[in-house]
Specification:
By secondary structure, the protein is an alpha+beta fold. A hairpin with a 5-residue loop joins β5 and β6. The longest helix is centred in the N-terminal third of the chain and has 20 residues. The chain is globular and about 45 Å long. The two termini are 15 Å apart.
Length: 152
């Protein structure tokens, strides 16, 4: 979308959400991705805000990439993925895009617009197992409800 006042405002608002999530979460990595068409005309998930180690900024929204990526699977299916034991999930043959081998739990939640169309995802990762339960999961879901209102 380029550098516009609206995009700058959106990025500022998402940075506030990301900082709030970081202050209140047990996660070690968190990202907000929006569904967009890139300059090559491909449908992708684009990372707009995050905390944690640097990581991939764009994921192609294709069935091929979904075979190795929770982010893309959630972005295409609209169904959340909560993996509280990544090593066990991998041992059972689950698809997984490893950004950081220290990640032991991941939660990926779709973001919806008012027409119930998937407009992006949020992804949260932790270096401990069994993180995404109770209040931690509630915080993530609350974040998933707030973010789409910012880009509506």
């Amino acid at each position: 979308g380029g550098q516009t006042a609206a995009n700058q405002r959106l990025l500022s608002q998402l940075a506030v959400v990301t900082a709030f999530y970081q202050q209140h979460s047990q996660s070690n990595w968190f990202g907000i991705y929006q569904r967009r068409v890139n300059p090559q005309g491909e449908l992708v998930l684009v990372k707009l805000s995050y905390f944690g180690a640097p990581s991939r900024a764009e994921f192609p929204l294709t069935a091929e990439f979904a075979a190795i990526s929770n982010n893309v699977t959630v972005g295409l299916s609209g169904k959340a993925r909560i993996i509280n034991d990544v090593p066990a999930y991998l041992a059972l043959g689950g698809e997984y895009y490893t950004c950081d081998p220290k990640v032991l739990a991941e939660a990926c939640i779709p973001l919806y617009d008012s027409a119930q169309q998937v407009t992006g995802i949020i992804d949260s990762e932790a270096f401990a197992k069994d993180v995404f339960t109770g209040q931690e999961l509630a915080l993530l879901i609350a974040t998933a409800l707030v973010v789409p209102t910012l880009w509506a």
